[in-house]
Write a structure and sequence with these properties.
Length: about 260
């Protein structure tokens, strides 16, 4: 049998006809450091792929938080700082668990897995999550009460300055807990390891997330501004969309930091 004609072109299938091209990432999201634009577009893509789980969690969580505020508005006064904390804390806890259940679902989706709403709630481990958040919030609240003697404005400024590093570091810590399932102390250590020299990058993504939430608020608000009776619907819809988008960005931020730390291409 005559030999096949020699060609200088490399067989795209690889030696022996085998395909040597790397397989696509399991979740369709590149497992490498991502740009800001890639994170935003990937967050929208992941939300669409998990639209049932994301919608159920976001709608249920925001409805529960809103209902909690309506009930407490008739039961608790909220004129002093302590009363405001009592008034807002239950709704904040509900939204925190909801958001990080969405982070857990999105994190699984990045790895090519799909889970439902109940599975996401189990994965985010609400007890550990709330304990870590309580420890972080306690440090910021302590700054408020310590600076309160200097006046309301000084206390507010000091609290904001204290909240910036706390929110930046705990955002990644809570992602580590939701996605990797670590206990609070181990999650804190893992968070600082992942952040390393990327603290400003994480802070920048949180600023980006704030801008995106503001854009959603303005867009949805413009759609309903001509119908005042539906402004409550607009506020609820804005909260649902912002919660879903925030979860996607935070999960992708965690994946991005892991890629940078572990040296994946």
């Amino acid at each position: 049998m005559p030999n096949p004609p020699h060609s200088d072109e490399q067989d795209p299938a690889g030696p022996g006809g085998w395909n040597t091209a790397p397989p696509p990432p399991p979740g369709g999201i590149p497992l490498r450091p991502l740009t800001a634009g890639e994170i935003v577009s990937a967050a929208a893509l992941l939300a669409w792929r998990n639209r049932v789980t994301c919608t159920v969690l976001a709608v249920a969580g925001n409805a529960a938080a809103a209902g909690c505020l309506l009930v407490l508005a008739d039961l608790l006064p909220h004129t002093t700082t302590a009363e405001w904390l009592l008034f807002l804390s239950p709704a904040a806890a509900i939204l925190l668990v909801t958001g990080y259940a969405l982070v857990a679902a999105t994190g699984r989706s990045i790895q090519g897995e799909q889970i439902g709403a109940l599975g996401a709630l189990r994965d985010c481990r609400p007890g550990r999550l709330l304990l870590t958040a309580l420890l972080a919030a306690a440090s910021v609240i302590a700054v408020w009460f310590a600076a309160d003697a200097l006046g309301h404005t000084a206390a507010l400024a000091a609290t904001v300055l204290a909240a910036v590093p706390v929110v930046t570091t705990t955002a990644v810590t809570l992602c580590v807990q939701a996605v990797e399932g670590l206990r609070p102390a181990a999650a804190l250590r893992r968070s600082w390891t992942l952040l390393g020299s990327n603290l400003w990058r994480a802070f920048g993504y949180l600023i980006l997330l704030t801008l995106l939430a503001t854009a959603i608020f303005l867009l949805v608000g413009c759609l309903f501004v001509m119908w005042p009776p539906l402004q409550g619907v607009a506020a609820f819809l804005t909260s649902v969309l912002s919660t879903i988008l925030a979860a996607g960005v935070l999960a992708l931020l965690h994946s991005d930091l892991r890629a940078r730390h572990e040296g994946r291409p």
